[in-house]
Amino acid sequence: MTLKQAVLVLCTLAGTGAWAAVENLPPPLKDANFIPVDPAEAKLGQLLFYDPILSGGRDVACATCHHPRFGTADGVSLGLGDGGTGLGPDRVADPANLPEERVPRNAPALFNLGVRNLTVLFHDGRISVDPNRPGGIRTPLDEDMVAGFASLLSAQTMFPVLSPDEMAGHYGESDVSTAVRQGLLTGTGGAWDLISRRVADIPTYAQMFHDVYPHVTGPDDIEFTDISNAIAAFMELEWRSDTSPFDAVLRGQGTLPEPAATGMALFYGRGGCVDCHSGPLLTDQGYHAMGAPQIGPGKGARFEASDRDEGRAEVTGQPKDMFAFRTPSLRNVALTAPYGHAGGHATLAGFVADHADPVAALARYDAGQAVLPLLNVADNAIMSDPAEVAAIAAAVTTAPVDLSEADVAALVAFLDSLTDPAAVKGRLGVPDTVPSGLPVP
Known about the structure:
By secondary structure, the chain is mainly α. The protein has helices at about 40-50, 60-65, 150-155, 165-170, 175-180, 190-200, 205-210, 225-240, 245-250, 260-265, 315, 350-355, 360-365, 385-395, 405-415, 420-425, and strands at about 5-10, 20-25, 85, 90-95, 120, 125-130, 135-140, 285-290, 325.
């Protein structure tokens, strides 16, 4: 199959009920598209992914905000990391350790992060492949980053543990949060080193690292890059997604029923979805200003008064990148509500309908649909400010697409066909216990 392939699907277009050709379907994913994974390394990474020991207060794991129960996200618009208890929509603020803010962006899903051509991560792409940088990776901490990452995904894993609202905690709450506050990230006594020493002090982990990595001859050799490499290996194995009904179509081994077939024709045709959601991952890995509503604290520095999230411009400083965000992959998207960089849309149908004409949708947006755990903070400062809403709308350059209710339903049915039962179930699953003995999310 080629990028110019045409697959015949039964579509009811303009009421004709005729067979229609769907152009430009991507090639199917194959084993060669994925980074090989050592099962023993993935098993080690599984335990670390579910172990709260990596957080400053030993109470937040990677899985807290990326749980398979919620499609590898957390089921809320903006999550609670440090200072929260519970999981998913049931997570609440801990009265004994109240969060300072919500996590400022919606937790992204983790499917197919083991593909070889992955070039950017995070909603603003602040971590990306860059052959001109030492190690081939550009990050916000270029001067402080260390060598030893096995992949872009591994480098990404280094950052949530430094975020006060996500995993590190605030100011003097722990040795890790204190180090972060003081800007001590690398070297002895730095945040990454403190976490590594916690892990290395647990005999089960020390033995597993020794067994997996030849350069680890004893606990003192364990670095945070080893921890991040193991976690990346787990994610690469656990949530590989290439056996959905849509994948069967790409391999010439199946067809889609109605209305999913019509939805596929719309997606690759009049709907224009493929303009951004291209390739086998259904993302161009680029950045587009699509008028997604902004709720929550925004992404500016803590000393800034605005709740704005300027998206890619937060990284580049370029006006042309204002309110542009990375195109997300749509793999298993039906399971990852809410939608948008701030999780402003509760349903996939609602997001698709508004996405077709984002400028008009901004004017009628109902913030009441956001799924937000109770927290005494202002969440709607931007959307209640006409000037801010106008600025988000002004950045949109995509022409609106006229979609009927039937069109939206067909597109949602097609997006449902991207759900892969094997990826949703995972390969290793959720462990009953972790070596630290801390509660598993």
